[in-house]
Amino acid sequence: MSATLETESLTPLHWLAIVLAVVSGAIHLVLGIQFFPGGQPIAFLLAGLGFFGAVVLFLLDYRRRLLYIVGVLFVALQIVLWLVLNQTHDPSLLSVDPTEAIDKSAQVILIVLLVVLYGRES
After folding, report:
1. Once rounded to an integer, what is the mean pLDDT over residues 42-55?
2. Least buried of 9, 37, 53, 77, by fewest C-beta within 10 Å?
3. Backbone phi, then psi, for 98, in 5-degree steps?
4. What pLDDT digit, counting tens, does each position of 66-107 carry?
5. Cα angle: 94, vertex 95, 98; to 5 degrees
6. What is the rounded distance in angstroms from the CA atom of residue 36 to the CA atom of residue 98?
7. In sequence order, which residues have a C-beta less than 8 Å from that of residue 82 and are 6 or more positions away?
């Protein structure tokens, strides 16, 4: 792993994936700070840091193909946990607030992009 950024090989799809990860990471950090202190805010903060950590590793060109796989699993887990936690409170899931809609939309698109990027670099 190099200590310098490697961005020359990045395509618009890579940059879109980075933006989506930053959006979701920022949302999680803001929610974690808003809900602090407590147990659940820690999970939000860790998730946010996970997104930003992955972006840093990606920009440093650290095992990008592995990051795609781990990223799909990490983001899918975020979606599953959100569904489980929200289904407990509101089984209809019709009361999605704008922040949740932006975050989950970004995450679904991010998963698709990570799968596409993994396939292209295989």
Report:
1. 96
2. 37
3. -55, -35
4. 999 999 999 999 999 988 887 666 566 567 889 999 999 999
5. 115
6. 21
7. 100, 104
